[in-house]
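The instructor's notes for this session suggest beginning with a concrete chain rather than abstract definitions. Hand out the sequence below and ask the class to guess, before any prediction is shown, which regions might be ordered.
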Amino acid sequence: MLLGGVSLRLLFVADSVTCLAAAALILVWVHEPPAARPATSNGNPWRDGRLLVIPLLCLGAATVALGQVFLLGPPYGVVAGLADNGSRAGYLAAYGTCWGIAQTFGPLASTRLLSIGVPVAWLTGAALCVPLAALVPFADRAVTKAERSSARKDATT
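After discussion, reveal the predicted structure:
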């Protein structure tokens, strides 16, 4: 239990649900059929309302940023708790490097997938999430085991 009794797993689920909901809203909003657009717009995106999605994007970005604020603290606490005092800096550096790699290559990969097609991007994401979700129980057991052994070491010293 982290963050006032809320499980980290629950926070990750809430973050992913809000991201998927925001993506679905944007997809529905942006992809309206051409017949639904007013004929008087003459192709002007401001007149037919297509650029009204910008405030929705801002709201979605603010929601995701708020979720990230809640999610960034507890994982660093878990990583710091897994390491002993001598190797804590190395653990945190490795964890931060993984986030840096993901934030650098993630947008590049997703842009490439989106250039192939929107369904390809969604299906690739789903194909990556399913095996990673299957690994969560094993990671949970490993973290719990490491925390227990760390607590035993701290109790004996």
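Then share the key points. The chain has a mean pLDDT of 75. Residues 1-82 form one domain.
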